[in-house]
Each structure stands twice: as structure tokens, then as C-alpha cells.
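PROTEIN DESIGN WORKSHEET
SECTION A - STRUCTURE
LENGTH: 89
C-ALPHA CELLS:
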């Protein structure tokens, strides 16, 4: 769970930084900044940047999810085997 919170928090910070950067550059280049377009461009920029910048955090989160899924599968198979043993006796 910690990995999810860290990765999500870093994604939000990266989006906020990209939004400030895009809105700032757009504000310097033009009189008005359309917030919706600035948000869309910031979303794309932060998504691409997170692919490279947050790779280590994403991998840690994926390993945690994989381990949890393997434990759940093992428990399910154990319960199924136990039911099969109880039913055949």
C-alpha cells in the first residue's frame, strides 16, 4: 500500500509541476491561458515524464501487487484443495 501512495503522490506532484510550467510558458507567450488546454498538455507531459522519471517507483509498486496476487492465488488454491479433500471423504 505504501508504494501506491508514494507513486500516486509523485504523479500528482509531477502533474502540478508540469501544469505550472505549461501555464507559465503559455502566460509569457500570450495574454490569456486557457486552463483546460494547459491541463491537457500538462497531463500528457507529466505522463511521458513519469514513464522515465518514476520508473523505479512504478516497478516497486508492480512487484508489491504481483506478490500480493501470488499470495491470494496460493490461498485460493489451498482452499480449493481443502474443499476437494473434504468432499471426497
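SECTION B - SEQUENCE
RESIDUE ASSIGNMENT:
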Amino acid at each position: 500500500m505504501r508504494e501506491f501512495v508514494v507513486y500516486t503522490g509523485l504523479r500528482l506532484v509531477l502533474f502540478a509541476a508540469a501544469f505550472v510550467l505549461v501555464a507559465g510558458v503559455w502566460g509569457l507567450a500570450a495574454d490569456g491561458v486557457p486552463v483546460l488546454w494547459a491541463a491537457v498538455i500538462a497531463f500528457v507531459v507529466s505522463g511521458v515524464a513519469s514513464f522515465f522519471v518514476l520508473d523505479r517507483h512504478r516497478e516497486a509498486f508492480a512487484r508489491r501487487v504481483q506478490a500480493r496476487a501470488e499470495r491470494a492465488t496460493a490461498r485460493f488454491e489451498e482452499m480449493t484443495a481443502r474443499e476437494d479433500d473434504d468432499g471426497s471423504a
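SECTION C - NOTES
Residues 55-88 form the longest helix (34 residues).
The two ends are 41 Å apart (CA to CA).
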